[in-house]
Specification:
It is a single chain. The strands form eight sheets. The chain has an eight-stranded mixed sheet, with no helix packed on it. It has a five-stranded mixed sheet with strand order 17-18-19-21-20, covered by helices on one side. A four-stranded antiparallel sheet has the order 10-11-16-13, with no helix packed on it. 40% of the residues lie in helices and 21% in strands. Strand 5 and strand 6 form a beta hairpin. The chain has 27 helices and 31 strands. Helix 12 runs parallel beside helix 16. It is globular, with a radius of gyration of 28 Å. By secondary structure, the protein is of the alpha+beta class. Bound molecules: tryptophan and zinc ion (ZN).
Length: 869
């Protein structure tokens, strides 16, 4: 934990381990504070390793005994410090028994074995297993696991681990045991154990080959009915993976356990996924449509890992995107098939731009395959996940659906049961498709978002369209030298009437690979408007020569829905930034008119319309500024939305009413879209502070029969200074203070409220009885809400920075993962004005001056504080 010389792990230092482990047997004698873990592994030493000691990872363990082939080792035969157990001269083939004691109750970092309420559970990815026992905690060591769990039968009637249950029985003193065996060799990061007095729902799934799989979802008693949506999503995922990829589930049982205390969304442990309750539980009364949608996506993501992650896993953690990028791509496609494809694409790209583009432009920039890290936990990033998925998507676009599928088949044919690299994945794709992906592979090694400049001219006499494309890859915090990237650039030409000009395949997908290139399209009979980077075929920033009129034309006519949405966003962004620069108060009349057209256009896809009617965020504006104007961005966006709200008040009201009066609650895309659009209307109406609108909102809050509508109304009220605000917040609290997931929403709307005083409110809420500093969901809800609150967190007096710095220091002692995530909020440092910089620097220096920081927080804060350019 020394800051001065943090240990850096390098990709180039990877060495194959000269030992193999065939199998491991574990026995847990569960106890809140003194759990005894006894493990026995069968280990072989390779001939190359003669004379090499056996080095096992281990942290926060109390070693009780080490035995080789049943003989207790003397203290001369091994060495131990706070991260390793070294056995000095191991034999060639032997069984190693390690007996340790651990304290699950004290484990607030939530990796290894810990307690979430009354439930024992584990989180071992990436390096949690070393907090359970001494072992080779690296993903290329794959063994079969057999687990015996012993626990008090009354308190822990349900005892689970990976694979199949093979034995169980009662023991003395009210204790009992269960034995589980997982026949698939796996790395220890996929190992899981759960014990508790759990409720559950069960179902089954018949696979394509006719096997019946037993499906179980476990949760705290009382929440069983909230698991129904998860179960439905699981069955859809299983079917989809068979239909689209021919991938069948392999064990006879698949279990999911939902726990409150969890660092991330969920974890793909073999046959026993563990979920954050926020990604597993949902019902009409307590969850919003967004929650339902996320549950479906995360269930799919973890289920899909069974093949992309578990059957084929990563050689080392530098390969993380191998499983995460691919699995995100798969879950995105699943969600697109289950819901609206264009809407899903728009949401994914909006998220990529809002998070990944920002990461890539800041102090934490890294390629999807990094070359070094201090703390691997800090590399579960939007770059590895979401940009990783975009890289896979480009391969899909370049190869086409059929060759891509052939490549995936090849990947499993070559690597099933192995721990491999991203190069192995690319190689499978090349072998199956016959295409050379060498130039493309640079995406794995280069950080930063390419800026792509597009100019086009039409030549009447020659009937030619000339498109000039330049890509600029600017230096990033981690990497000075850049190469041009290779990417598919989908385009279309829209004629005067708004229809697409027919293009052959090569012309509709340009392959860009050099800094500068020119494409000439022939036989174009009239001057078209160019639609660029359709469906966001490449994860780049496009700078086009489009005029505002051309953007308006595209937002009305482009056959590519993504670009229809994107043209509107681009236009609004340009106009807002211009307005800010000119300090004018007049909103562009043409824009107001085309916004009105979208509003009045009777499109059936409600969600698409809701998205099209939502203006770019303040964060989007901030991304276009070298020095962020937080207050200005807030002011100008507010001016725009208010102008639109006033201009179209009666249309919003009519649409709101037209979308009301629906019986029943469904979570199909149409019903969800209807609620979404209706709540967008309500938001515009309320911005005018018209008392009729406020009443409507308050009524929706009180009479709403589902959380989507209730919460939408609460969120609107939380941002308006009206008397109904306080009433609503209080009513919501008294109704839901017993439910932590619902309380998360209540915390967020307040800390994220742009009204004055959010900082004070956030501080006060930290001592609310519903707040809990050991529950990541609650901490993220309150503090995450605040750091996303630009005007308040970045207040010029620096109070927001100081507050978050204090929280980071406090949290680092409790849960360094949560603390380090919170610290990423400092990554805008290099884009702050002078005054704010001084305040943020002081806050960061105060953190860095502490000498007992974890590497997690140290890595993030030191990188941010060095980013002043
Ligand atoms: N592999 C998990 C996923 O599907 C991510 C994850 C869950 C994780 N829990 C974690 C990563 C804890 C690091 C630490 O995406
Ligand atoms: Zn994942």
């Amino acid at each position: 934990m020394k800051n001065a010389s943090p240990k850096v792990t390098l990709l180039e230092d990877y060495k194959k381990l000269p030992f193999t482990v065939e199998s491991i047997e574990l026995c847990f004698d569960l106890d809140d504070t003194n759990t005894v873990v006894t493990t026995t592994s069968n280990i072989h030493r390779s001939p190359a390793a003669i004379g090499e000691p056996l080095v096992l990872n281990g942290e926060e363990l109390k070693l009780l005994e080490v035995l080789i082939d049943g003989r207790t080792l003397s203290e001369q035969e091994y060495q131990i410090d706070n991260s390793f157990l070294k056995i000095l001269s191991p034999p060639v083939s032997f069984s190693l028994t390690v007996k340790t004691e651990i304290n699950p109750k004290n484990n607030t970092s939530l990796d290894g074995l810990y307690k979430s309420g009354d439930i024992f559970c584990t989180q071992n990815e990436p390096e949690g297993f070393r907090r359970i026992t001494y072992f080779f905690d690296r993903p290329d060591v794959m063994a079969t696991f057999t687990t015996k769990i012993i626990a008090d039968k009354k308190k822990y009637p349900v005892l689970l681990s990976n694979g199949n249950e093979v034995d169980k029985g009662d023991l003395a003193n009210g204790r009992h045991f269960v034995v589980w065996h997982d026949p698939f060799p796996k790395p220890c990061y996929l190992y899981a154990l759960v014990a508790g007095d759990l409720g559950s729902i069960t179902d089954s799934f018949v696979t394509c080959s006719g096997r019946t799989i037993d499906l179980r979802i476990y949760c705290d008693k009382g929440n069983e009915s909230k698991c129904v949506h998860s179960m439905r999503s699981l069955k859809k995922s299983m079917k989809w993976d068979e239909d689209v990829y021919g991938l069948e589930y392999d064990l006879d049982i698949f279990m999911i356990v939902a726990v409150d205390a969890f660092n991330f969304g969920a974890m793909e442990n073999k046959g026993l996924n563990i979920f954050n309750t926020s990604c597993a539980l949902a019902d009409e009364k307590t969850a919003t449509d967004d929650n339902f949608y996320r549950v479906e996506g995360v269930i799919a993501h973890e289920y899909f890992h069974n093949w992309t992650g578990n059957r084929v896993t990563c050689r080392d953690w530098f390969q993380l995107t191998l499983k995460e990028g691919l699995t995100v791509f798969r879950d995105q496609e699943f969600s697109a098939d289950m819901n609206s494809r264009p809407v899903k694409r728009i949401e994914d790209v909006a998220n990529l731009r809002a998070t990944q583009f920002v990461e890539d432009a800041g102090p934490m920039a890294h390629p999807i395959k990094p070359k070094s890290y201090i703390e691997i936990n800090n590399f579960y990033t939007t770059t590895i996940y979401e940009k990783g998925a975009e890289i896979i998507r480009m391969i899909h676009t370049l190869l086409g659906k059929d060759l891509f599928r052939k490549g995936i088949d090849k990947y499993f044919e070559l690597y099933d049961g192995q721990a491999v690299t991203t190069e192995d994945f690319i190689s499978a794709m090349e072998q199956a498709s016959g295409k050379d992906l060498k130039a493309f592979s640079q995406w794995y090694h280069q950080s930063g978002t390419p800026d792509v400049y597009v100019n086009y001219r039409y030549f009447e006499e020659k009937k030619e369209l000339v498109i000039d494309i330049k890509q600029k890859n600017s230096p990033t915090a981690d990497q000075q030298e850049k190469k041009p990237l290779y990417f598919p650039f989908k385009i279309g030409l829209v004629d005067k009437t708004g229809n697409d000009v027919t293009l052959d395949e090569a012309d509709s997908m340009l392959i860009v690979s050099k800094d500068k290139e020119q494409f000439i399209l022939q036989g174009i009979s009239e001057k078209p408007v160019l639609s660029i980077n359709r469906n966001f075929s490449a994860p780049v920033k496009v700078h086009s020569s489009h005029t505002n009129d051309e953007l308006m034309f595209l937002m009305a006519h482009d056959s590519d829905e993504f670009n229809r949405w994107d043209s509107a966003q681009e236009l609004a962004t340009r106009l807002m930034l211009l307005q800010l620069k000119e300090n004018s108060l007049e909103v562009d009349a043409g824009y107001i008119q085309s916004f009105g057209k979208i509003l009045k256009y009777d499109s059936l896809d409600y969600s698409f319309k809701a998205l099209a009617l939502t203006l770019p965020s303040e964060d989007t504006l901030a991304q276009r500024q070298d020095e962020i104007d937080f207050d200005g961005n807030h002011r100008v966006r507010k001016l725009f939305v208010l102008k639109l709200a006033e201009t179209y008040y009666s249309d919003f009201l009519a649409l709101y009413q037209q979308l009301s009066n629906v019986d029943g609650f469904d979570v199909d895309p149409v019903s969800m879209g209807r609620r979404r659009l209706r709540n967008v209307c309500l938001n515009y109406l309320c911005l005018t502070k018209n008392s009729e609108a406020i009443n409507l909102c308050y009524r929706q809050f009180q009479d709403g029969t589902n959380m989507t509508d209730v919460f939408a109304a609460l969120k609107i009220l939380a941002n308006i200074d009206v008397k109904e605000r306080e009433n609503a917040l209080q009513q919501f609290y008294s109704k839901w203070s017993h439910d932590p997931l619902v309380m998360c929403k209540w915390f967020t709307v307040q800390s994220a409220s742009t009204l004055e005083g959010a900082l004070h409110v956030t501080k006060t809420l930290m001592s609310d009885p519903a707040f809990s500093i050991t529950l990541p969901n609650i901490v993220r809800a309150l503090l995450g809400g605040f750091i996303g609150n630009h005007v308040q967190f970045h207040a010029a007096d620096g109070e927001g920075y100081q507050f978050i710095a204090d929280c980071i220091v406090k949290l680092d002692k409790i849960n360094p993962h949560v603390a380090a995530r919170l610290a990423t909020s400092f990554r805008k440092y290099n884009k702050l004005d002078k005054g704010r910089k001084v305040h943020l620097k002081a806050a960061m220096d105060k953190i860095l001056a502490l000498n007992d920081l974890t590497p997690h927080v140290y890595e993030v804060v030191s990188k941010c504080s060095q980013s002043d350019s």
